[in-house]
Amino acid sequence: MHKIDIDDEVYEHLLRATKRLGESANDVLRRELKIGKASVTTRQSQRDEEMLRYINSSQFRAIKTATKKYLAILIRACDKNEKGVAQLLELPGGRERVYFARKRSEIENTGKSTHPEQIPTGDIWVLTNMATDQKRSKLTDALGALGYGSDAITQACAALA
Fold first, then answer.
1. Alpha-carbon distance 130 to 48, whole Å?
2. Residue 119 — φ and ψ, nearest 5°?
3. Which residues form the Replication modulator SeqA C-terminal DNA-binding domain (predicted)?
């Protein structure tokens, strides 16, 4: 895959030409240039599209707090990638904090008021008592480790607001 720079006018055209939520710029260009659809839909793009549908669903929009949205996205992402869940444990922690752990106590022992919550798939615990910006940062790391693309990650993080 190659990356290109485009000017603002072309970018605005791509935005206006988007026909469905979560449609990639590549898909818009293929349609506009009458190239046709990509021959193979990758596993990543399927997962990305599922995540985008979820964060735009009425079920997800009904969730009121950033913490609950953070957990819902992580649960959904882990549910779709049980093998990748172990990679969350390899993500770096903070100076003193552990963000992902196998046991609740591993998170609780790193500070006061950590409020660990369980992600059922893979039996992973996650620290939830942090600012929304930090949740976005950890969500970016987690979704990246689980193999999500940049569009899905960006929109998932924006959905925490």
1. 26
2. -100, 110
3. 51-157
